[in-house]
Automatic annotation (TrEMBL):
Keyword Cytoplasm set for record: yes
Protein name from the UniProt record: GTPase Obg
Binding site for Mg(2+): S173, T193
Chain's gene name: obgE
Subunit and interaction comment: Monomer.
Protein source organism: Kaistella gelatinilytica
One Pfam family cited in the UniProt record for this chain: MMR_HSR1
Keywords, in A-Z order: Cytoplasm, GTP-binding, Hydrolase, Magnesium, Metal-binding, Nucleotide-binding
């Protein structure tokens, strides 16, 4: 999924409330009709809404300002002004909104979920509310209250079944391209994918699961080096993690421990997630080298060998992922 956008900053402004009416009833046969001014209508809200059919914040990429409608003024005969029209910002599931201070003000987890992020101003009261025994004909009414405005930062944390975790050049993009219709950029360099890619992986009997290629880890990411927290936040939302160690690594188990430590430093709760270990680019290995690599790992941490280029071990990898996602007892 190219052009992935996971961070957008928008200036949002809700509508001002409509003014109350200070109308006095004047009819031919009712010389002292008194106040009958209605209330102003509420200003429009700015509302964040979940949309399961959206995968990125790309539709919002070039949106700089969002403004809701002002509430309508009150009218005679105690008629309340119409509410200002609300504005909806549709976002993918897993999107959070922060205020200018960085505090989380909303989080969307379900399709159709709605959260008001800027409340419309209340409408002012009409003069009928201010009638007293000593002031039978008040000629004043309340103005509407101001709406809320300010910058809102929208961030998307990927909601995927499987998150791919590995150093740059571990073969994550190659795997995703091999098992899904995603078209990530692939190059042989020891830097990293700059943006996450998401792909739907077809499985047996028309089943499927979602796989996310998270930007590659570099040592010290938990302290903010490299892409730092920008990629680590995506890992929080994956159901299981797939650690990927390339076949040409100098020390496969040591590389796994470094990756594991980066996640632990960032958020110890990530260690509670279920995970698998895999050795990518296994077309570079013969059976003897595979046996040597297996000896590096403890019995309960044996890796799965696969090659995204030759498709070797891909089905076995899918089976292992499906079992972890849906339980060991599920029929494949």
């Amino acid at each position: 999924m190219s052009n992935f956008v996971d961070y957008v900053k928008i200036h949002c402004k809700s509508g001002h409330g409509g003014a109350g009416s200070s109308h006095l009833r004047r009819e031919k046969y009712i010389p002292k009709g008194g106040p009958d001014g209605g209330d102003g209508g509420r200003g429009g809200h700015v509302i964040m809404k979940g949309n399961a059919h959206e995968w990125t914040l790309l539709p919002l990429r070039y949106t700089r300002h969002i403004k809701a409608e002002k509430g309508h003024n009150g009218m005679k005969n105690q008629l309340t002004g119409a509410y200002g029209e609300d504005v909806y910002i549709e976002v993918p599931l897993g999107t959070i909104a922060r205020n200018e201070e960085g505090e989380i003000i909303a989080e969307i987890l379900e399709d159709g979920q709605e959260i008001i992020i800027k409340h419309g101003g209340k409408g002012g009261k009409g003069n009928e509310h201010f009638k007293t025994s000593t002031n039978q004909t008040p000629r004043f009414a309340q103005p509407g209250m101001d709406g809320e405005e300010g910058f809102v930062i929208f961030e998307l944390k990927l909601l995927a079944d499987v998150g791919l975790v590995g150093f740059p050049n571990a073969g994550k993009s190659t795997l995703l391209a091999a098992v899904s219709a995603a078209k990530p950029k692939i190059a042989n360099y020891a830097f990293t994918t700059l943006t996450p890619n998401l792909g739907i992986v077809d499985y047996r009997n028309y089943k499927s699961f979602v796989m996310a290629d998270i930007p590659g880890i570099i040592e010290g990411a938990a302290e903010g080096k490299g892409l730092g927290h920008r990629f680590l936040r995506h890992i929080e939302r994956n159901s299981i993690l797939l650690f990927m160690i390339p076949a040409d690594s100098e020390s496969h188990f040591q590389e796994f421990k470094i990756l594991e430590n980066e996640l632990k430093e960032y958020n110890p709760e990530l260690m509670d997630k279920d995970f698998l270990i895999s050795i990518s680019k296994s077309d570079l290995l013969d059976d003897e080298l595979k046996e040597e690599i297996l000896k590096e790992f403890p019995e309960n941490r044996k890796p799965i060998f696969f090659s995204g280029v030759t498709q070797e071990g891909i089905m076995e990898l899918k089976d292992a992922i499906w079992k972890r996602l849906h339980g060991e007892g599920e029929n494949l």
